[in-house]
Design brief:
Helix content is 81%, strand content 0%. By secondary structure, it is an all-alpha fold. The protein folds into two domains: 54-170, no CATH class; 173-318. α9 (175-198) packs parallel to α11 (237-257). The two termini are 13 Å apart. InterPro entries: DUF2157. The chain crosses the membrane at residues 44-66, 72-91, 100-121, 127-144, 151-170, 176-196, 208-230, 236-255, 262-282, 288-308. Keywords: Membrane, Transmembrane, Transmembrane helix.
Length: 318
């Protein structure tokens, strides 16, 4: 049997005549990390910290010595670092994970390069231009690396670019429309990730990546729905409502089918916040504050109880 978890082994031990030595052996082989796994973890941790601190050090170096540096020195240092890290990535002896971590550091340096360019020449560009070119110039690296942290950086840059564009250029766009577009984008990326992971098109997709995407989508949905509740004249609000209901329905279904409590906790919490906002829309008096407080306490308690019952049911089905 593959992919045994700690709970599986304990259930097997309770319903079989497995000896204590057999149980200990199963835990060592399937649950406990051996020396090799700890060495791999420490190696990746130290590499990640090293590249992260190096990148942060470069950024603080420019910030502290900005006035005393010649512009050619500024460009030269950052370009040499980008070229050096890119050459290291191309070395054949480096494993895939280390290569991806270094490439992620290089992607941050690309952002530093464009920040330096904008500061030296005072291009007058809006802030969204900086994030736009940063996003465009690391697109190829993101596609080639297929590395979850780098993909997360890329998605954050896209969201940031669009938000700043709506604030600085498309100022006449309704806020509910902007939030709807952000929700649709993040939800689409989440669905694509789940589908690709289901059909094994992506290797070793970490759960935290999809969790962050789901949390981001739920955040935009909650903000948009609350904004629409208090400003019901927005024409895009009915569209957002329908889309959110469909997405949340599929999210709950996916959480039940995959036996994942994350989606079954985030979505109800978002719905509770929307209902609370609807109650405040009716009245904002002292009595309503009491009603909303009681509603939140009762509803959260019921959600927790339901999740606990589902967890017990799923464990019994194993």
């Amino acid at each position: 049997m593959k992919n045994l978890q700690r709970e599986d082994i304990h259930i097997i031990s309770r319903h079989s005549n497995v000896t204590e030595k057999g149980l200990e052996k199963a835990l060592k082989e399937n649950v406990y990390n051996d020396r090799e796994m700890w060495q791999k973890f420490l190696r990746l941790l130290l590499i990640t910290l090293g590249i992260g601190f190096t990148t942060a050090g470069i950024i603080f170096f420019f910030a502290y010595n900005w006035a005393s540096l010649n512009k050619f020195v500024k460009f030269g240092l950052i370009e040499v670092l980008i070229i050096a890290t890119t050459i290291i990535v191309l070395l054949p002896k480096i494993n895939t994970t280390t290569r991806s971590i270094i490439l992620t550091g290089s992607s941050f340096l690309v952002g530093v390069l464009f920040a330096v360019f904008g500061q030296i020449y005072q291009t007058g560009a809006n802030a969204y231009d900086f994030f736009l070119v940063w996003t465009l110039f690391i697109t190829l690296w993101v596609a080639v690396s297929n590395f979850a942290p780098l993909w997360l950086l890329y998605i954050i840059l896209i969201n940031t670019t669009f938000i700043l564009y709506s604030q600085q250029v498309a100022r006449d766009w309704p806020e509910i429309l902007i939030i709807t577009i952000l929700f649709l984008f993040n939800t689409t990326v989440l669905i694509a990730s789940l589908v690709l992971d289901h059909y094994k098109k992506i290797e070793n997709l970490p759960k935290w990546f999809t969790y962050i995407l789901a949390l981001g989508a739920a955040t935009f949905a909650t903000i948009g729905m609350i904004y629409g509740i208090f400003d019901s004249y927005e024409p895009a609000f009915p569209v957002l409502t329908v889309v959110v209901l469909i997405a949340y329905g599929f999210g709950i279904r996916h959480g039940i089918q995959s036996k994942n409590g994350f989606y079954l906790s985030v979505i109800p919490l978002s719905i509770i916040m929307m209902i609370a906002a609807s109650l405040f829309k009716i009245s904002d008096g002292v009595e309503m504050f009491l009603i909303v407080s009681l509603f939140i306490i009762v509803s959260v308690t019921l959600v927790i109880m339901k999740l606990i019952n589902l967890q017990k049911k799923w464990k019994d089905e194993k």
